Structure formats: C-alpha cells, structure tokens
Amino acid sequence: MSDQLVRAISKDGFVKAAAVSTRALTERARQIHQTSPVATAALGRLLAAGSMMGNELKGDGSSVTLRIKGDGPLGTLLVVADNEGNVRGSVQNPQIDLPIREDGKLDVGGAVGHGGTLTVIKDLNLKEPYVGSVELLGGEIAEDLASYFVESEQIPTACGLGVLVDRDRSVLRAGGYLIQLLPGAPEGIIDRLEKGIMAAGPVTNLLMENDDPESLLRRVMADFELEILETVPVEYRCYCSRERMAAALVSLGRKQLTELAEDPNGIELTCQFCDSRQRFTPEEIRELLEKASEA
Q1: Neighbouring-strand partners of residue 128
Q2: Could you tell me which residues come within 8 angstroms of residue 44 by beta carbon, excluding any fewer than 6 positions away?
Q3: In angstroms, rounded to a whole number, what is the distance separating the alpha carbons of residues 48 and 44?
Q4: Is a pLDDT exceeding 60 seen at residue 69?
Q5: What CA dihedral angle connects 64, 65, 68 and 74, to 10 degrees?
Q6: Side by side, which strands form the sheet with 4-10?
C-alpha cells in the first residue's frame, strides 16, 4: 500500500485526529541517507509527525519545519513538510548506532538525547514565520511533540509514532497518529482518549497488525464515532533544483563567490535532503556574480 494520511473529527466535535502510514517514504529516506536502524527509527518518527503537521496547514506554499537538537550522538534531525503532507528530512550523523535496549527495542531516546530542544517553524506565507521551541522530555519524539503542543500552542495532544526496522535494515512499518482536543471539549474526553490509547497498545504493534491509517485511528479512538474528512497520498518529496542551489550560492555574498570563482575546480553542492549534486564551474560562478551585481 502506498503511504497515506487520514484526517478525521469525532462526531461530537470535541476531537480532531490524523494518522499516517509512512513505510515507503521512510524507506526512501533510509536509502538516501544510508541510516543505521536507530537513525532510521528516529528520522522516521519525525517524518511521520511532520507529514501530519504539514497537512494541517492552510494555504499553498505553507510549510512546517521540525528541528531536534539533542545531546545524543545522532546530532540534529531536520524535517520539512509541505501543506499536503509530503516530507523530506535529514539526520546529522546517520551511521551512528547504539545497542538494543533491554526490552528489545531500538534506543531512539539515547540516540537523540535526553536533553536538548525541539523547534517548530511554521511558514504560513506571512511576513514572519511562527517559531516555537520546547525542551526535550526524553528524545523519544512523540512525547516531545505532545509537550510542544501543550506548551507552545496550548492544545492538549496525544501523539504516537512508530518505525519497525527489518533484519536487513529496511523499513518494515512506519507511521503514527496525532489526536488533539478542540475548544469546548469537556474534561471527561481526555480520560476516554487515554483509556483508548492504553487499550490499543504500542503504535508499532498496531502497524504490524494493519498499517492502514484509518484502521489505526479507529483502533486508538475506539470509544469515539469518527467522521473521516480526507484521505490523501503522501511521499518523500524534495524541492531542490539547480536554480535553488544557484540562489543559495548567491546568498553567500560577493566576497565568497569571488573566491569560489578563482578555484579552477569550481564547487559541487549536495542537497542535504535528497543527496542530489550540482557542480558549478568557475565560469558559471562568475556569471552568478555578474547577475547579482546587476540586480
């Protein structure tokens, strides 16, 4: 099944929810970055979260960036999602690996770090993007995102994210859910949600049974009647191009561009998200200099 995102609302109007299956796009990220199993799990969780948060944005061209700077060996994790839920991402140290935890699970928290920050940047095509940042709770990512929503946006939120890595290091299952209370929700709603989440069990187990996102939502929210609002495909999508890389070169400034133009080898730029490469010769760099001077 191709990756899909489902958005829903409870019939009583008190809860909105999203769920996503992201096996294919997480596997694409693994292949691009050659990630270790624990790096695959960490980046995969953040990709799933970014997809759900991006899809919720209104307006073409809107985007959300999730950046985790933890004190663990993975370094910085970065995910960018468009308003359709398509995502791209990177991890600073993709080959880092850690021993399996005592419970047999990948040590995502240890790899990300138990200290550090989660920063959310929402670009809504306004003059200034919205930026919110919270301290990491433990680096497991789902709990950190729920904390962000409560602290920065005052929205009670439940988040579950999971990535299962196969023995050959490929991605077996990936996905998650994001459930949020709407204004006016009575106090008892939280208790009902928590009971449903506890009864459903870990996300990875649910994904193994059935990784259809609608099924995932209905099992976690079994005590609620759901109205499905939309079901859309999502994918790993990078927007890099030679033109964008040229613009990035120009942004370095005249002094640095002049120095690059004097190097007989020119320069090769690599996209951090899709690993595509573009080489610029000294002549092409000089042309960029001239165009920048005319602007």
Answers
A1: none
A2: 22, 26, 29, 30, 163, 171, 174
A3: 6
A4: yes
A5: 130
A6: 157-165, 171-181, 15-21, 4-10, 226-233
Beta bridge partners of 280: 267
254 — alpha (psi -120 to 50), left (phi > 0) or beta?
alpha
Looking at the structure, tell me whether residues 217 and 286 fall in a common domain: no
For the chain, what's the residue count? 295
Backbone angles phi, psi at 149, to 5 degrees: -65, -40
- 8 Å CB contact between 291 and 261: no
Q: Which domain holds residue 249?
A: 242-294
- Least confident range from 194-198, 208-212, 242-246: namely 242-246
SS3 breakdown of the chain: % helix, strand, coil, rounded to 5?
35, 30, 35
**CATH number for the domain harbouring residue 90:** 3.55.30.10
What DSSP element (H or E) covers 63? Answer: strand 63-70
Which CATH number does the domain housing residue 283 bear? Answer: 3.90.1280.10
Contact 88, 79 (CB under 8 A): yes
Q: Residue 295 pLDDT more than 70?
A: no
pTM: 0.91
In this structure, are 257 and 152 located in the same domain? Answer: no
> What is the CB-side half-sphere exposure of residue 62 using CA atoms within 13 A?
17
List of residues 6+ apart from 86 with CB closer than 8 A: 51, 54, 234, 235, 236, 237
Q: Could you tell me if 204 and 173 are in contact, meaning their C-beta atoms sit under 8 angstroms apart?
A: yes
Total domains in the chain come to 2
Q: What pLDDT, on a 0 to 100 scale, did the predictor assign at position 1?
A: 66
